Amino acid sequence: FLLSHNICYNNKHMRYTLHDGLVEGKRGRRWPLVLLAAALFAGGGYMLYNTFSPTLSNFGVDPQVTAKKLTTSTPTPTDNRLYMPQINVDVATVEVAPGQTEEKALDKGAIHRSPSSGNPKDGGNYVLAAHRFTMGLTPSETRAKSPFYHINNMNVGDQIYVDYKGVRYGYKIVKKQTVAPTDVAIEARTTEPQLTVYSCTLSGSNDGREVLFAKLIGTVSWENGKANIVSL
User: Fold this and answer.
1) What's CA 215's distance to the chain center, in Å?
2) 186 — alpha (psi -120 to 50), left (phi > 0) or beta?
3) What single DSSP character describes residue 122?
4) pTM
5) Which residues pair with 5 in a beta bridge?
6) 33 sits in which H/E element
7) What are the pLDDT digits (tens) for 79-103?
8) For residue 77, which phi and psi values (nearest 5 degrees)?
9) Distance (Å, rounded) from C-alpha 161 to C-alpha 214?
């Protein structure tokens, strides 16, 4: 007759019988815990990669794609777009529909802020704003939802292009500035044609806005399949 007990001592599984005394027993299966730890580790790594994916703006993307598009494709009347080839920005520009929130419209690209202030065709101040950083379900979706992540890398003298109602307009940055989130003067109508592009800082919308001010330099025309800027 053997009397036995299982006890745990110093995180070891111990077995005791009157015949054998206290001995270390076989450990229970720990595969579920190992698999859970591996899953948590992998999930954490994926979340970290997803969070920082916009910093890899050229990961898996030819950095010349946007630049090539500007010289090989012509604008269409139904597809208004904004191009900043220096940071691989090629996004739709959209109007906020009646009854639609700006947040919902921003999911589709850069929104036309303050339409009464102007547009490329009629003059004035054409104001575009887009997300700086928004998390998606995948790294590619995160990058797509964060088109202005690298707006701080644009500099005075850089050119920006806009497709508006079938015409491609060229602009040159003349000023970059960080302003308070309450500064609405950047959206005011101007006497000269102007493009104003902005997004919040990486610290968030309550911290401030990074703004690019650009002047109109001309429109793009095609001769024998070659794109040329027609200066004003």
Assistant:
1) 25
2) alpha
3) T
4) 0.74
5) 16
6) helix 31-52
7) 999 999 998 899 999 998 888 888 8
8) -60, -20
9) 10
